[in-house]
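Reviewer comment 2.1 asked that we show a complete input and output for one of the modelled complexes. We chose the NAI case, as it is the one discussed in the main text.
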Amino acid sequence: MKIAFYDTKPYDKPAFEKLCAEKGMELSFYDFKLNPDTAKLAAGCDAVCVFVNDNVNAEVIDKLYAEGVKAVALRCAGYNNVDIKHAYKKLHVVHVPAYSPYAVAEHAMAMLLTSIRRIHKAYIRTRDYNFSLSGLVGYDLHGKTAGIVGTGRIGRVFADICRGFGMRVIAYDKFPAAESGLEYMPLDDLLRTADVISLHCPLTAETEHMIDRAAIAKMKKGVVILNTSRGKLIDTEALIDGIKERKVGAACLDVYEEEADVFFNDNSGHIMDDDTLARLISMPNVIVTSHQAFLTEEALENIAAATIQNLTEIFSENGICANELCYRCGDIESCKKCRNKKCF
Ligand code: NAI
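Response of the prediction step:
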């Protein structure tokens, strides 16, 4: 099997190289993204392996199909960057639904603690031998209310972590998990009640900008907003206004609406073209990490193992892969859950 890897970074390679050498697979690593121009480099490959910001749109799918590529393997959970509908009957699309929910949930808590205990400020101060505590007053999480939007794998681990801190956990999910023991409520009630709101639902047409001006208006003054899910869940301009009006107390963002051209790259020494991102980063109560929540050793090993397993299954005799994403049933998620036959 020949696989072209797009948007690869040095930390991606070791786990894949080790596994693929054992299986005799041939890999080409490209550090640029998959797009209509770079698709032709996959000629002769059985599959392409892509990440969150590779844009697998209809044009790219048609070009890959014309080059003889048969599958797109996402080495991530989210698949909002793939035109699944257009891929049907052309390219099989597989993803890694879970590789370490702990990695993402722990990162969310790391950002929350950093923010409310001003660790990011203290770190810079003590490096400069400034041991003043002025301006570093934080608050206890114990007794506060965490509102979790999306109670799937990551959301539920985050709920457990919050409970460990003695927080009350409330939740909203379009499909509440039965017997989860979570205190579900309508989204509006959650927005009005939570001290900390953490987003863990996928980006869909329905969830795009779910945190907009109207949603922020409903929130408690001083609320902390965490987003480790997808940038477009939040209307960034509305968030900035909410922070400027002192309504939003802090924002911890591992993802950003327009991250595709900026995140994962070293832009130090360059002028930041994105004024919105520059404004966010300039704010003392905003913490931005560059889509780093997944980045643990355990997660990278699990991603590589699951991706190779997915491709092995897709190219096996019966072609059945539990992690295939397909449009056939009209609903990707339920399709994935109920299907036990080959998609096409
Ligand atoms: P999951 O599929 O286990 O859970 C998602 C939950 O969201 C489900 O319970 C689902 O019912 C719920 N949901 C769906 N539509 C909704 C809606 N309209 N409103 C409210 N809830 C809704 O997914 P998982 O593994 O927990 O991942 C969550 C998200 O985290 C992914 O979609 C992905 O975007 C993001 N992610 C980010 C990473 C990072 O490095 N920052 C790494 C991995 C995932």
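Residues 77-78, 98, 101, 104, 149-155, 172-175, 200-203, 206-207, 228-230, 254-255, 291, 293-294 surround NAI (CB under 6 Å). We note this here for comparison with the apo prediction described in Section 3.2.
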